[in-house]
From TrEMBL:
This is Bifunctional glutamine synthetase adenylyltransferase/adenylyl-removing enzyme. The keyword Nucleotidyltransferase applies. Coiled coil: none annotated. NCBIfam families: PRK11072.1. It catalyses: [glutamine synthetase]-O(4)-(5'-adenylyl)-L-tyrosine + phosphate = [glutamine synthetase]-L-tyrosine + ADP; [glutamine synthetase]-L-tyrosine + ATP = [glutamine synthetase]-O(4)-(5'-adenylyl)-L-tyrosine + diphosphate. Residues 1-443 are annotated as: Adenylyl removase. Keywords: ATP-binding, Ligase, Magnesium, Multifunctional enzyme, Nucleotide-binding, Nucleotidyltransferase, Transferase. Residues 36-269, 569-821 form the Glutamate-ammonia ligase adenylyltransferase repeated domain.
Length: 964
């Protein structure tokens, strides 16, 4: 067995001794301990860095050694120092210097094997408790003169501090984070200070100062890294919580892993009535009164995840996290405590060693097994402490450099590193054997290939993967399913969404039921995604996470997807096909209800039934409840649009019928909006009493809506706005006949405003439609609603050629029969006006060129289907030119407002050839199909293909024939 330093360490120790001898405060008495000092300096940079500068520390260490001083009264010594502190800067300095000296002392005694590892972890833990408690006390006293003292049933309220993990078990690592939770007994206001504040405000100020006093890095270093993420609601939760709120949280939302973590929770404050009260609150959450078989399934899942994490990360050199490491030993003991602790109160201890003794005494674990677990656990804790004491760094990784390997050999008594590794493997095997025996499940580690997807899905949800690990997992999944996938392109986006999603589990207060569903649902989601035919599963994952993010706080929707996996499958299919659908469902989760019945989802209602269906929906709403009417309209539109999109994605409907359905849907909504607005206006002001051909206009309202553009041409797409013009035919300006009469012209103006309000106000379900009124006479400068006579005069005398082009795609949508007839006659008359072909050609081509220059976005790789040369707009302008040029001689071509039927009619009349008509129709339908798909992809440009280029050339050739 090795008893002295290796040659390399001996040389290092000698060099560092020489540095010490050159110090101005070198004490000749150090010569007596030269060998020991050289050994301590060689084994730890941390010891050398401090003792070579502060020689009084080294002198004190050697003095204690001579006096055989094994224990230190940290409480008394720190209290004496803090009585001299008058400000927070001095507090920080004293805390750090006190910590550094005593950690040097512990490292000195550990590395020179002057004390056991049990003594070492106990000393580190007690040192931490005193630094935390006395800092807390000092800061508390510094706040009370200004803010007063919080008071409770038993006198002044302390801020109670729960130490979690190894701190709670009095087993703290040498260089470790400390996990804390802060709480106080009850709400109220402080008393006796210059400015009274609420208890919570007081304790938040105190907590913030305490964290700073421990966590902040100064010239003297850091006391401890403080981690507050184990508190209720995690990072999104309040920094300090009162007892009632904490009790409510753990009773209603506490999760199994929090029970597991709370096993180690210890109140660090000195005992008092408040500490007893807190213990009584926490105990029922941690321990059940009976043998807790309910925890077994959760522990089985946790165990499986530990195994997968070790396998995934290849943690072979990690003394804590690797197979058979410290974490597995802790898991064995704490799991048995969790299962049996409610029935056997002796197991309700934070100490692993004490718990093992009790488990043996209760015959829950064999004595020999318990002894082996403890022996291996303590040996690995010794190794862990050594690794951290070399340089005061938080690490559990075995060294790969010979110097640190030699240090381990020296401290642990091995002749070479291979002997150390053999012993380590023996301890790992002993722990792992017990780990595998715990909560045995039927999972076979050597899973067949068919089960790898299930395993990967579980890992993706349950393991805390780094980004590089997730990339590796994605690559393996892609290879398994023979997918060509650019992983790096989407992993950043995935991790941003994934992190936000995980954070939201706390911020959105997802309860135990919601988390339980999620833990079942998420692996299934990932499994279905990667077993689907998606060309990019990672992008699909991102879309599904976006939807789930929107419904995290709505357990009913999570339950819907878990219990109706057919609906989940439809969600995955639709989100894979369309980011637009993903966006719609994310913004309006009520659409998830539509996924329950695939038959109706992919079969939109008959085009002529939209009005009846909407009317039936509105019959269930009180006429005076405008808010609910608007929500009903929006819900109807959203659900019907989703069904149309689903039919589109699955190719149930051809392109023209997609537009027809979207247009009929909009028409039905326009009819109802006009009726709702009319009812509201007449309830308030009465009806207009103007005379039309000697008859009162009450039944038909004397009002009409004209649709232009895509609405007029039966060509609406997803997300299209509505180009509308409002007309009325009220003769005169008499007052309305209600209790609050207004002039008729003003009535129609207010009616138009009300219609726009219903369309465009943003509710919880968004706006109904965007409405564009710029095609009304005089555009934005014109009246919101125009008298039919004024509209006739404008179209015949003042309208520009481009406005007559727009009239080609205008049609009557809703309103009274009189205006309908007048409008149809006017439209035909305007389109039939005599025009010089040369002038018309010039004006149409100039306008088209201007539009292309301002709006076209295509390039050699991507095509702008509408504005690029040979695109949709060229076809539309060509059709409009033909209507304006030939309607006078062929009025039948003006019957229709859609390009498809106009082109057919132009061919019948030999105005263009049949072949030209067919080519234009083929191009137009192909463009519209791609336009719908682009809308579903939230995209504007499409990749250029030979087929699209051919269509462009055909359209351009025909354009040049007739317009150049």
């Amino acid at each position: 067995m090795q008893t002295s330093l290796s040659k390399e360490l001996a040389e290092l120790g000698k060099q560092r001794w020489d540095c010490l001898t050159e110090h101005k405060d070198f004490d000749p008495q150090f010569n007596t301990y030269q060998n020991q000092i050289e050994q301590g300096f060689a084994l730890s940079e941390f010891i050398f860095e401090h003792c070579s500068i502060k020689t009084d520390w080294l002198r004190q260490l050697l003095t204690e050694q001579q006096l055989f001083a094994d224990t230190i009264d940290y409480a008394h010594e720190l209290n004496e120092r803090l009585t001299q502190v008058t400000d927070e800067v001095s507090l920080h300095k004293v805390l750090r210097q006190f910590r550094n000296y005593h950690m040097v002392r512990i490292a000195w005694r550990d590395l020179l094997n002057m004390q056991t590892i049990e003594s070492s972890v106990a000393q580190v833990s007690e040192l931490a408790v005193q630094l935390i408690n006395q800092s807390n006390y000092w800061l508390y006293q510094s706040l009370t003169p200004r803010f007063g003292t919080p008071q409770g049933e038993h006198g002044p309220l302390p801020m109670l501090i729960l130490g979690m993990g190894k701190l709670g078990g009095k087993e703290l690592n040498f260089s470790s984070d400390i996990d804390l939770i802060f709480t106080y007994a009850n709400q109220g206001d402080t008393q006796g200070g210059r400015k009274s504040i609420e208890h919570q405000q007081f304790f938040i100020k105190l907590a913030q100062k305490l964290i700073t006093s421990l966590n902040q890095i100064t010239a003297d270093g850091q006391v401890f890294r403080v981690d507050m993420r184990l508190r209720p609601f995690g990072e999104s939760g309040p920094l300090v919580m009162h007892f009632d709120a904490m009790e409510d949280y753990y009773q209603e939302q506490g999760r199994d892993w929090e029970r597991y973590a709370m096993l180690k929770a210890r109140i660090l404050n000195p005992p008092c009535e408040y500490t007893q009260e807190l213990s009584q609150i926490l105990r029922p959450f941690i321990y059940r009164r009976y043998l807790d078989f309910s925890a077994i399934e959760s522990l089985r899942t946790m165990k499986h995840m530990i195994q997968q994490e070790v396998r995934r990360r290849g943690l072979v050199n990690n003394i804590k996290l690797g197979q058979g490491g410290i974490r597995e030993a802790e898991f064995v003991v704490q799991s048995l405590q969790l299962i049996n602790g409610g029935r056997e109160s002796s197991l309700q201890t934070q100490s692993l060693q004490a718990a093992l003794l009790e488990l043996t005494a209760l015959d829950i674990i064999p004595k020999q097994s318990a002894q082996q677990i403890l022996k291996s656990y303590l040996w690995m804790r010794k190794v862990e402490h050594c690794l951290q004491q070399f340089a005061d760094k938080q690490t559990q990784l075995l060294p790969d450099d010979e110097l640190d390997q030699s240090r381990l050999n020296t401290i642990l008594g091995f002749d070479n590193y291979s002997e150390f590794m053999q012993t380590l493997q023996h301890h790992h095997d002993a722990i792992h054997q017990q780990f595998l025996l715990l909560v045995k499940d039927e999972t076979n580690d050597q899973q067949p290939s068919a089960d790898k997807l299930n395993q990967s899905a579980m890992e993706l949800w349950h393991l805390d993967l780094e980004q590089a690990e997730a990339q590796l997992l994605f690559i393996q999944l892609a290879e398994q399913h023979k997918m060509t996938l650019s992983v790096e392109e989407f992993t950043d986006e995935f991790f941003q969404l994934y992190s936000t999603f995980k954070d939201s589990l706390q911020k959105k207060r997802v309860g135990q039921r919601g988390l339980s569903i999620l833990n079942q649902l998420m692996p299934l989601v990932f499994k279905l995604i990667w077993s689907s035919n998606s060309h990019n599963p990672i992008k699909l994952q991102n879309r599904i996470l976006t939807v789930l993010q929107a419904i995290l706080g709505r357990t009913a929707y999570l339950q819907l997807l878990w219990e109706n996996q057919g609906a989940l499958g439809q969600l995955i299919k639709l989100c894979d096909a369309s980011p637009w659908v993903t966006e719609q469902i994310s913004r309006f989760p009520l659409l998830l209800d539509e996924l329950l019945n695939p038959v109706t989802l992919y079969q939109p209602i008959e085009k002529g039934q939209y009005s009846d269906e909407l009317r039936q929906s509105l019959l269930r709403v009180e006429p005076e409840d405008l808010e609910l009417q608007m929500e009903t309209l929006r819900q109807f539109k959203l659900t019907q649009q989703l069904k149309i999109a689903a039919a589109d994605i699955s190719n149930v409907l051809p392109v023209m019928q997609i537009s027809d359905h979207l247009t009929y849907l909009a028409e039905a909504i326009i009819h109802q909006v006009v009726d709702i607005a009319w009812q509201q206006m007449t309830d308030k002001y009465g009806s207009p009493t103007c005379q039309i051909q000697g008859l009162r206009n009450i039944q038909d309202k004397g009002f009409a809506v004209i649709g232009y553009g895509k609405m007029g041409g039966w060509e609406l797409g997803y997300g299209s706005d509505l180009d509308l013009v409002f007309l009325h035919n009220c003769q005169g300006n008499e007052l309305t006949d209600g209790n609050k009469p207004i002039e008729s012209a003003n009535f129609y103006f207010k009616l138009a405003q009300r219609i726009l309000h219903i369309f465009t106000i943003k509710t919880g379900l968004g706006w109904l439609y965007e409405v564009d009124m710029r095609l009304r006479p005089s555009g934005n400068a014109g009246l919101l609603v125009c008298h039919i006579n004024g509209y006739i005069e404008y179209q015949k005398s003042e309208a520009w050629t481009w406005e007559h082009q727009a009239l080609c795609r205008a049609r009557f949508i809703s309103g009274c029969a009189d205006i309908h007839k007048i409008f149809v006659d006017l439209r035909l008359a305007v389109l039939s006006l005599p025009r010089k072909t040369s002038e018309l050609t010039s004006e149409v081509t100039e306008m088209r060129e201007k539009m292309r220059n301002h709006l076209a976005q295509g390039n050699e790789y991507k095509l702008d289907l509408k504005q690029d040369q040979g695109g949709v707009a060229d076809i539309e302008f060509l059709v409009q030119f033909m209507l304006l040029a030939h309607t006078k001689e062929n009025p039948q071509i003006a019957i229709w407002t859609d390009n498809f039927r106009v082109l057919k009619e132009l061919a019948k009349l030999n105005i263009i050839t049949e072949n030209e008509s067919d080519l234009l129709i083929q191009a137009y339908l192909e463009y519209r199909k791609h336009t719908h798909r682009l809308a579903l992809q939230n995209a504007k440009l499409i990749k250029t293909t030979p087929e699209l280029i051919s269509h462009q050339k055909n359209v351009t050739r025909i354009w040049n024939k007739y317009l150049t």
